[in-house]
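Lab notebook, page 48
Experiment: co-folding of the full assembly
Goal: obtain a model of how the components sit together before planning crosslinking
Operator: M.T.
Materials (sequences as entered):
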Amino acid sequence: MSVYQKNEVKEDETSRTLSLVVDNQPGTLARVIGLFSGRGYNIESLTVTEIDKIRSLSRISLVTRGTSMTIEQIKSQLLRIVPVHIVRDLTLEGPFIKSELALVKLVVKGANRVEALRIAETFRARTLDVTLSSFVFELTGKPSKLDAFIDLMRSLGDTEISRTGVSAISRGNKTETKLLDQI
Amino acid sequence: MFFLKVNKMTVNYINGAEAVIKALEENGVEVIFGYPGGAVLPLYDALFENKKIKHILVRHEQAAVHAAEGYARSTGKVGCVLVTSGPGATNAITGLTDALMDSVPIICLSGQVPTHLIGTDAFQEADTTGISRPCTKHNYLVKDATQLCEIIHKSFLIASSGRPGPVLIDLPKDIQLSKVKYVNKNTKIKKHNNDNSSNIDESLINKVATLLLQAERPIIYGGGGVVNSGPEASKLLTELVNILDCPVTLTLMGLGCVPNTNKNFLGMLGMHGTYEANLSMHNCDVMLNVGARFDDRVTGRLNAFAPNSKKVHIDVDKSSINKVVSVDYGIVGDCKKVLSALVQEVKKLHNQKTIKSKTKWWSQINKWKEKDSLGFKQIGNNIKPQQAIKSLYEKTKNFDTYITTEVGQHQMWAAQYFGFSKPNHWMTSGGLGTMGYGLPSCVGVQIAHPESLVIDISGEASFLMNMQELSTIVQYKLPVKIFILNNEWMGMVRQWQELNHGSRYSESYTASLPDFVKLAESFGITGLRVDNINNLDTTINEMINIKGPVIADIRVEKEENCFPMIPSGAAHNEMILSSDDNQKDTSNEGLALV
Ligand SMILES: Cc1cc2nc3c(=O)[nH]c(=O)nc-3n(C[C@H](O)[C@H](O)[C@H](O)COP(=O)(O)OP(=O)(O)OC[C@H]3O[C@@H](n4cnc5c(N)ncnc54)[C@H](O)[C@@H]3O)c2cc1C
Ligand SMILES: Cc1ncc(C[n+]2csc(CCOP(=O)(O)OP(=O)(O)O)c2C)c(N)n1
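Observation: model returned without errors.
Model output:
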């Protein structure tokens, strides 16, 4: 990015969800993250796990923010990284599903315990661990739903939160199989 | 199909180091620039036995990379570097960054501590792949010897395809010593997604050709990508310019891809470009960018950059398009391929449509030319640096001359006053602006072109940054000429301090300079000195005629500034042509710019 100011109509930044297929190799994630920090792009969420053992491929789901020009830059910069094979812009492609998992530990005693369980039930959270003074809940769904749940839990007691970050996939019957076969 | 049952297979195992050298050979490497150390001794052992690859022992690993860059840029081949672990690798980092910025294909092999010691702070251990990740196009740490050969083959493909760049391969010592089976270069190695061998969109070529033919005030702006694409691309670009009879300007990195003698060539553009080149950019109605990347040295203030123009950008790297300047048409592809399609289409349409008359445009451009923005007055006996370059050009233009430069005023004067008629004959550090690039780079150029005249146009401060390479030059009897424009100042810094910082010359004087003639003599080479304009030509002649290496200490006017200039943060049409022109203070935003 140049330091010279740009003469563009101020365009709003929007949130975009990108889905990448990359080689599961040491250094790949470092290159992706280095690209974002080195060029001053935002990362709102990033998850990565192997999705194909035989071909040793991983999926990176990434949520970023920027103007459309910045997003286009991010996408083509990502494609320059040698072990990055596919870069898809799910936000642009059409309807897609975004899901996340949260583990929420709540330290709580007395009447608030019932309240906590009731909220958990409403949110369809699973109770994974119980002691006389605490719970661990597991909740999956949209990030906004997780936010709401966590906010409520916080008001009930001391909490500890662990979230996976967003994982995303497009709706409908289209798959990447053909693209993957070209790798 | 039949099967053979072999009891004792006679597979020839060699060690990893031998496999590496064999793979280099298979990829056409003839020369490798390097410096030994503990972690690469097996590789040096393999080189000792090898008869085909010539090793050039530099005196600093940074210089190894610059030498390989000079070699690569002047030949179009991949440059090859070998350094040891730890300090060897860290010393190479500046060179790798330079190659990345200027799109130079380099393979850098670095030694590493054995795999079982990685992560233990072992002797001369450094996280080389970690350190070099942001300054390489790609890098590898080889942990599995069976993958060694394929990694090397693939590295050559990565370094030279798409937008070229450096690839580093980190080789732990145990991998170099392990037994491996050599794997030949596979004809179908996986291509990576960014080599852009995809086909060109014909309807886009048609639109662009039409746009060019109908333009009233077109300009072509060519860059380093044309040089990268090979000499054919330069010919095609020149052909396009001639058919359209339109003005053409080149970036610092593109010089030579249209001959300086072409009547449509307006000189370099940008911060120290000519008045006519920059004003033509500012006032054009159609701009065709071929293999250049809208660098900030070129565009000046972006919100005033060629404000009323339709812009077309040809670049092999998709991420270059719309990175800093939004364009109307982006064509992703190799210059040669796209230009050949475009030239064909323009020729075809040319018969059907009439080209818009450019008489008015040319008469406007000729008016700008009358400003004579590169004019200077050589008065008195002091040598004007501009005159030194002009005379050097006059005396050498009939030879096959290769020029390398350091960074500073002398670099800009070389770009302005030396004429380049062919691509690949001009080696300079543009993107990173690395002082100390020119001397080692000319080592690489001379190795590649032993019969040619190779000159490093240098500043005295830059020269001091890698002058240890004199020793390399002497060892390999390289007849390079080092032409130092000695103004006793870090001239470019002094100029900015004069123009932007109230003439407060903070730390920009090059004190305690050596006697360059005696320095030359101490290495057993010739040193020349001249400080009077009347002796300039004789000194240059003497320098050229001496068979061996020469340091020529050209004492020039000390406080000469480099003009014309677009002050930081200003637009193309706000150029200043001389110090007297510098009326307006640089804006605050401008002061913050590099
Ligand atoms: C002190 C100093 C002053 C400077 N002043 C100026 C100045 O006044 N004017 C000036 O022009 N520069 C100047 N520079 C240099 C400047 O910093 C940039 O390095 C230079 O302008 C970039 O040149 P370029 O745009 O041709 O791009 P390059 O850096 O050469 O990049 C080449 C572009 O072409 C693409 N490409 C590569 N290969 C191919 C291919 N085969 N096909 C298609 N595309 C390809 C690449 O993706 C890239 O976008 C100066 C540098 C220094 C150190
Ligand atoms: C490694 C490095 N350090 C610092 C700079 C900043 N810099 C740019 S030009 C310059 C002065 C160069 O002086 P000299 O080599 O004498 O050339 P002149 O400008 O006098 O022609 C400096 C210090 C640089 N480009 N590279």
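Interpretation: Residues 68-80 of chain A form the longest helix (13 residues).
Next step: discuss with group before ordering constructs.
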